[in-house]
Design brief:
The structure is a single chain. By secondary structure, the protein is α+β, with helices and mostly antiparallel strands. Helices cover 23% and strands 34% of the residues. It has one helix and three strands; from the N terminus they run βββα. It is flat and about 40 Å long. The termini are far apart.
């Protein structure tokens, strides 16, 4: 039987460029990470929307 490891979202937000895509890894409160693949255009739209907040 495999050992049970706690799932934590600890760690910083990570954003890296892989080829033509931008990969964003967001730690989640309940544990684990949300991984999102964005194009440059989508990342720009996200930036604009976040600046409005």
């Amino acid at each position: 039987m495999a050992a049970m490891k706690p799932r934590t979202g600890d760690g910083p937000l990570e954003v890296v460029r892989e080829g033509r895509s931008i990969i964003m890894r967001v730690p989640l409160e309940g544990g684990g990470r949300l991984v999102v693949e964005l194009s440059a255009e989508e990342a720009e739209t996200l930036r604009e929307q976040l600046e409005k907040l």
